[in-house]
Design goal:
With about 600 residues, this protein is an alpha/beta fold. The chain has 17 helices and 26 strands. The strands form 5 sheets. An 8-stranded parallel β-sheet has the order 23-8-7-6-5-3-2-24. It starts with a helix and ends with a helix.
Length: about 600
Amino acid sequence: MMKKRILSVLICCVLMLGCVGCGSASEDTAKETNQAVSSDAATQFDEAEISQEEEFFVPRTDERARTNTISAEMKEQAKQMEAASYQKLPDWYGTSPNGKYEFGWTCDGVKPYYEEVMVQEMAAEGFNFIRVPLDTRLFFAKDTSQGPGPHFKGNSDNANLKELENLDELIAWCIQYGIHVCLDVHNTPGGYMIGGDEEASRELLFTEGSAEEQMFFDFWDMISARYADVSTNALSFNLYNEPPRFLEEEQYVRFVKRGIEVVHSYTSDRLIFVDMLDYAHVPVEGLVGEPVVQTFHFYEPTSFSHANFDLYAGINRTTPILVSYPILPVSCALQDEDSYKISGDFPKDTKLVMYMAIGNIGGTFSIKADGEEIYTRDISRELIEEAGIGMTTDDYGTTVFNSYESETDPLRLECTLAEDAKQIEFCYRHENPVLIWLELNNLVVSTPTYRTALDAQWIDGVELPVTDAIIDENGRVKLRQDLSEYEQGYQLIEDTFQVYHEFSRRTGVQVMLQEFGAIYTNDVNCVADYFDDVLTVCDKYGFSWSMWNYDGGDFSYVVLDDIYRRRGATYEEVNPGRYVPLELRKVFQKHMQEL
């Protein structure tokens, strides 16, 4: 099914959009550590020109690259934090600052260095864990103000002290405010997450003996040495984010075991997290018995969490697509005397975009507005040929088009209302009504105030009745029928999480949810319901969790730019230019208290 393939593609290409601000050292920290970056020096991260005379680029094996600048006082305080080990995790509720997760890229409103204000905010909001995504290139490149081009041309011979010392600051601030830090390699040569040639080169990281593999382990060797004297109660490592689908378990197990050896050669009890296979979805049986915690990521249903990365409709930030949660079991087959109806206030110039993936050729698709036919289109052989979709003959001798098998985009049709309407009806008629059918897979309704997507659902072994949808003034969708047992909502989440719970119960391996989230374009109340369901199931199974992401981007909690404000949200300014949605804060703090 095309829709299932779309969800699979979205899962595989989870677009981690967003990044984070960071900042300058406090006066006290600068006095205690003469290598710490001062307030004046931190501003240099904003400058494209970096003085060649500054001694911030040193050999990776130099003692300055392998010795942190965190004060002795903070290291003692780290030991007093709640004990953390691969055998038992504290109750953690976290998020991700993203300022250093991709070299050469940033979001509007964020800074390329960490700031204490961000850590203060996190603590005030109740977070006690942060997963810090990093790009190894930042720590090996001399000029981090410019992007690396299609491939990183550098090496791991030298280290960037500015980046390392800013990371020291982040860890020290987090210790001060009682937040555990987990360093995560999100991008690295041969193992990038973000598209293009970099994505195509990901197998290089897992090729034994490759330069890309060596650079990865050089990074962890440097980081493990640098923080060897920081308690694991305060600091843990996530070796590598979302191993790709093509990776064989045997390859991954070898890769992870080498990483464990590198890290534990410096701190034998360092807590190590390992993302599950298949983009952090499939438990790794081959690592059972190893001293690691396995982590999973959850964005299902992706048609909700990634609504405006919809492969049919594209991204539109001015009038974004709204998808209601739970995802409703909308039926799609137009056949016999059936028709599909939507009700609401649809003003003149409302645009309807329809996508059909499969159906019989030879019938007439039509649209009625308040009972009056306003649009017809023959689904002819010529139309399907023009769309480039493959055709075949079914068991009844009728010609069928199928974009699933031909691996093409669905047939796209559109219509604009000439008058206001209250009800719109979609029909497919043929002189032989027994054999004719057409799947209306996706419908996007665009008005001056919203764009709403209705996606057809397939449920194995279930023939859904024809559904009628109601769209309210905010673009949220309801059904006239009660089909809640088939919704993609709480039950989908519980069924998925139960697999990880059973794996943990059977093997004794600790499991943590280290990524979940939802795009800002959806209605905030739907997002709050989704987060509440995810965290309710985490509570049920005792999973600690971390949400993607904290600030700056499509999935952010703290808003830095008006473009990322969540629809319908009430915001509180927590620091100048930094706003928190009260609806989501309420959900998070509810579950922080329940743990």
